[in-house]
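Technical note accompanying the year-one report. For the benefit of new consortium partners, we illustrate the data format agreed upon in the data management plan: each record pairs a sequence with a structure-token string. No post-processing was applied to the example shown here.
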Amino acid sequence: MKIRSPLRAAYAEQRPIYDALKTFADDVFQKPCRDRRWHYESRVKEELSYALKIETGRVVALDAVEDFFASTIVVRNSSEIGQAVKLVRERFQIKNRRPPSRNTTPHRPASFEFDDLRLYVKLKDNPARPPRPEADRVFEVQIKTFLFHAWAIATHDLMYKANDANWGRERIAFQVRAMLEHAETTIEQAGQLAKAASLEREDRATQELRDIIEVIKHGWPADQLPLDLRRLSQNIRDLLRLLNVELVRWKTLVCDELASAPPPLDENPYQFSVRLFFQHEEQALRAFFDKGDARRKIVVYDTFDRPDWFDPTSTPAVLWIDS
């Protein structure tokens, strides 16, 4: 495609400025996004893309392309979008946003066109900072969720790189976006939806996990527990099933032990349970070890005195861990 010399000159003049702005913005956003398990990416427009943008007729001047440099912050779900906006506001001045409000949209209910949040920002004024050419340049920060980011990547060639116009292809792309919007809403409101009459039920496994979590929360300080209590409770439930020990028996052993002394700092609830079983469920442990099944193991730490009858090297069903 032929690009006229005024556009080529304007692009060449601005490109180093936006490259510098990209370096600054990347330094600002990359670590905070990584720490929050968000995704961050950025790009500076290429010359051809710049020329096509100018020819849309929506740009007021050759040096006023708002997305000459654009960055994208991808959050886990829509409930974190506000946190991302706060992150941007801490380091940049927000000049404009589209849509202007999270509660308004230009699209009709039947439309599922692109409507992700775009912030148009510039560096905050700082009298102590030496003048720099990129200080007054506006750039774009898109904030979207992983689901919609995946949609944009998967359908990008259908929407923007096609060499012809095809109604059916675009229809498919927006049908997928509609389904993802429904999924996004479901994820955001999962807590409320789970209370619906058709979903407010439990199977035996869920009830047992809830019972184990309740005992753990009551017996251990929060700072001695992982954030993933479900995985911890699942490990304990698996242990009970391997040894064929009833949940009520585990509760009794744990609660009796904790009633006499606080939980040791060097034992998590799983290790604590294993020790109690060695002390009070010898028959169940012997029966499990005699099977010699190496597919599922009991993890045993040397945090307690080994009984005379137990030799960790004599069975493949034990993963013995020395301190």
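Partners are asked to follow this layout when depositing records. DSSP finds eleven helices and seven strands in the chain.
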